[in-house]
Amino acid sequence: MALSLNDRVKETTTTSGNGTVTLLGASTGYQSFAIVGNGNTTYYCIANQGTSEWEVGIGTYTASGTTLARTTVLSNSSATQPTALVFTSGIKDVFVTYPSEKSMNLDASGNAVAFNGQNITGLPLASLSTVALGSPAVNQVLGYNGTAWTNVDANSASAGPGVVFYNATPVITAAGAANPTAILTLATLPVTTAEQTLTGTATSNTTLFSAFVSAALGRTSFDAGVWDFTIWVGVDSILLSTTNLTRQAYTALPLLVGTLTTTGTGTTRTATASTGTPFATGAIDASATNTVASYLQTPEGLYQITARTSDTVVTIATPTGYVNESAVAACSVYKKMFGVTTSPSITAISPNYEQYNLLTTQGQFAVTALTGLAILGFVTSDATRTITITYNGTQRNTHVNSPFANLHNDLNGLQGGSSGQYYHSTLTEYTGTGTAGTPFVRQTSPSLVTPALGVATATSVNGLTVTTSTGTLTVANAKTLTASNSITLAGTDGITAAFGGGLAIAAAKILTASNTLTLTGTDGATAAFVAGGTVAYKGTDLSQFASTTSAQLAGVLSDETGFNVTGLNVFNNAPTIINPTTAAGTTVVPSLTLTSGTNLTTPVAGAMEYDGNQRYFTNTTATGRGYVPSVQYYTMTANNALVTVLTITPFFQTASTAIPLAANGIYDIEIVCYFTRSVAGTHLYTLTNSVAPLSMNVDVNFSPIAGNTTTPTGANLTGAIPTTASAAAAFVATGALAITTVHVHKFYIHLENGASNSNLRLNVNSPTSGFTPLRGSYWRSTRVINAGTYAA
What we know:
The protein is an all-beta fold. The chain is built from two helices and 52 strands. It has five domains: 93 residues; 238 residues, Sandwich (Jelly Rolls); 35 residues, no CATH class; 117 residues, no CATH class; 155 residues, Jelly Rolls, CATH 2.60.120.
């Protein structure tokens, strides 16, 4: 049966109701439905003439009797789909159509758009044979897992997207009187010989019809991730019914100890384990619902666990032909992990099978090395329906792509010996045996040779002499001794007796060829050295030096800067500071201060520089050097009344609020003035430099004449002063500003200062009193500088 679409196909019918319609022949100028072909399907529309009744769906044409069965209802005038519309009497037009929900069109940009609303901008993957793309994530790529192309994490640490499990033969336990459901193999390698089929029938219920189980996987956990079930399935009929397939994953744990015996008669039997706890509450789910319950696999078949009595006793459901088993050991318990169901209903009519990809994201499941994976299949229908799935072969091989990472001994390209052997580094040293779930054993044990460590004796290496066979000398951070130097350690049993507290020489002086250091005593507290020699000994006080002359100790003090008498901390060279702790600066702890110098000519990432004028920081060598801006800020914290009128007066009152300007500095300055007037009138602003700048560009923005109201009644006053070298720059007088209204005047200034330090002040004069600068007025000055580039 195939879907057939033909042009200008139209007939009439007088059939009423919601069943198959009988066609009465082609309408004038049209073809009959015979062109569709006997047994084929097509898209149809039925419209009752002179009424609003209509229906669109998928129909099956039968030449015998010239009828059209309304197989699948897509839409109708009463919105009863998928239930067929009940037509009233009258003549109906029946014709081939192209339903909108099955169509593919071009959008306004000319891109192909599928019925699901997605643009089709690339070529189909049909040439890749088998493709299983489900729930792709950002940065995934298309990868081949040995059988199908699938979406794979680009940075996956394993050798592939995961382990693929195939529904496969051979049959473990065939279906029969004692076993309603055949148990087959779940394999990691596909069987590519003849395609096989497996059927299951539901009679308005949910029925278990397939079981596939793997061997022990040798894992302690089932990995978290995406499970992708790829299934080829069809149903015998879709007429007025809904049929679905459910695939559920189970852990399959064999009976670890003892045996199992079944007793009883009929369809309910008792299964008893001789020892262990195979039926502990955490190991099974006993239920009368077949999709919830755990299952017991015995040599006879697979049986639902319906009730639990104890850790060793459960009740199982069995067919009437089941024969009790006694003391059998080859048993396993299936415990459900999760399941997925086809949606929407299966619509492919067997043997025209349709591919379904069922995806689910699951967490990690803890298991043992002997646990296998079982996949059970259930069919659910609201009528009596039979589904068929395919497996094996090269075209429609049902399988599941798991998130399992490949085990080390499963990676492609490893050498392999005979069964159970894995070659890793070298054939002679790393050939081993072992089976799944058991420890790896080397075939040939390695030969370990005990190293000849020898016995310590008095040895002279580069001038260092140790006269002991049992003691240990530790010299930390010491200077290298040349061949002409010597240190002699004496004692009856080595260092332990001669230096009871041990010997540590830290940050020691360089001993020249003319120096000799001799350490003697029984407690390590005495150090004697020849006259003229200098040595730094780290101790708690100066008494640990047995010196006959103060000049010898003075030689140490005079040679080392930073000599600390309390701990005798001596620095022979400038120290290297690692992760220094700095402070903002106090009377005790100075702040971190940079000394000015010459800037680098080649970028160094992380470099901080100071040329005496400006600090710089280089984030990356690609972006180069950038300056660290210097910002000054002043804000008024209280209202200030200008008591002087008709006189230029600083808006910010005191001279200390003038903006300081460094010689040759370049500045971006923002001044925002809030004020009120109690008397209407005009006033004049003046920007006054203590020394004329090289240039000063100013933009101004004044609030409307009528005041800064919610809805301004007048336009803002704007203006500018172009580049000028004047020490003072005045603006035109403002208009008669409204009284008792908060006004705002803003100044934006770009200034290049000359060769002298100077300052800038905003002055204002008013012919009348009542001009009040308000709290919150402020100026902000940011010094900018051309950071420049590194030399080529």
